[in-house]
Amino acid sequence: MKKLVQIMWISLCCIYMLNAQTIDTTKKGEVVYHVFQRSFYDSNGDRHGDLNGLGEKLDYLQDLGITAILLMPLYEAECYHNYFASDFEKIDPEFGTMEDYIALVKEIHRRGMKIYMDMETQYVTSDHLWWKKAVGNPKSPYSEYLLFEDKEHKIPATIIFELRALNSYDGKVIDITTVNLKSSWVLDYNIRLFSYYLDPNEDGKFDDGVDGYRLDHAMDNLDKKPELTNLFETFWNPLITQLKDINPKVMIVAEQADWSDIGFDYFERAGVDRVFGFGLKGAILSFDKEKLMMLADTILMKSPKGKEHVIFIENHDIDRIATAEQNLEKESLLLLS
Question: Coil, helix or strand for 144?
Answer without folding.
Answer: helix
